[in-house]
Amino acid sequence: MSSVIENIGIRKILDSRGNATVEIDITTGNGFGRAAAPSGASTGAMEVVAFPEEGIDSVIGTFNERVKGDLVGVSADETVLIDDILKEIDGTDNLSSLGGNVTVAISLAAAKAAASSFNMPLYQFLGGNLKNEIPYPLGNMINGGAHAGKNAPDIQEFLVVPVGAKNITEAVFANSSVHKKIGELIKVKDGQFTGGKGDEGGWAPNLSNYEALEIQSRACEEISDETGIKVRPSLDLAPSELWDGSKYIYGREGVNRDTGEQIDFVEEIIDTYKMFFVEDPLREGDFDGFSQLTKRVGDGCIICGDDIFVTNAEILSRGIEKKAANAIIIKPNQIGTLSGTYQTVKLAKDNNYIPVVSHRSGETTDETIAHLAVAFGAPLIKTGAIGGERIAKLNELIRIQEEMPSSVMAKLK
Length: 413
Ligand SMILES: O=C(O)[C@@H](CO)OP(=O)(O)O
Ligand SMILES: [Mg+2]
What we know:
2 domains
């Protein structure tokens, strides 16, 4: 059984926004792995750079001379070594020479090729034989902010979690029922609604933040009653996109909020709508604002950092010190390697931060993050509710559940 890399190929493919991204194929003596990189629209400033300035075609052009030769002959299961080689070839702190999307796709494709060489699913190769917890899906219901058009809410993501689901099949179907119900409720509210959707498959309606919150909350209640599966509302505010340097500009609402007002606003929403999970309540960099909010509401609500931590262990350790949050979004392409991603997950778990494995708004049908969430023991995965590039991950979780007879849903706090 050889896991030694024999060949590596790169190609330019489409992402769900119609933009270019890369896909990597790795062949070993005995296996094959393929992985594609996603892209964000509301990216954190401290993320690694997705593609070099010269563009995606340039790195594809130089891939053979810069990367291939150094990796052929290395064992695909040597994740840390492979990532070190990539970082050395790149030579920058933010992977701007090769591009974090290129390095992450190589890193993940190598792990998949290794798993395949040992004839194992990726979650088992990375997580071990005893892993049997399936994450709950955070499904995206309404898109606003940078993921939708002008009249959509300022808040970027209105999400739900089917906390009462007994298995992943119940969970993903509960989420899709809420998605349908929200579509109906939006049509009742706005006869002109054309059924448009945003980048992540959530509806993109002409609604204010509060109108969207009301509809989200009502749909959760109705579907919980109809199915007997408790579904709870959640949010990603992504407010770095609203911050003008001194205040948050809620353009749709015509309201500005300073940091104190933003904290009060989020606290009020959490209390009123019994939010289960709130991501990025404040802009990136505002560790103090995060800790104030977490102190006030962190016992009853998951306060999760995305743009503020960018899957970076060093930045997360600052957050841990400041008690900024109690959860962290894990996006492999924010840090550019699988080993870097794992380092951050480990630090999070060691410090009681919940790791939430996440898609990007620009995705492909790559299903790898479903395996990562299981392997890392992440209790939540954020990967949309409908749409081909989103269901690729959800349907993969259904398959993982099926092949793991002892599987249980992860423990939520
Ligand atoms: O903010 C986010 O959490 C993500 C994914 O939902 O969006 P993007 O990929 O645009 O950063
Ligand atoms: Mg986010």
